[in-house]
Amino acid sequence: MRQRSSTRRSQLIEAARLELETSGFANFSLERVAERANCNKNVVYRHLRSRDEAILTAWTSLLQDRSKIQSTQPANLADGLQHWLISNQRQSTFFQLLSEEARTLSEPILREEREAYYRIQVQNLSKSIMSTNSEMTFMALLSMVTLPFVLPQIFSLVTQKEITPESLAEYQIAIHELIQNSNESEI
Question: Which of 93, 126, 131, 182 has the least C-beta neighbours within 10 A?
Answer without folding.
Answer: 182
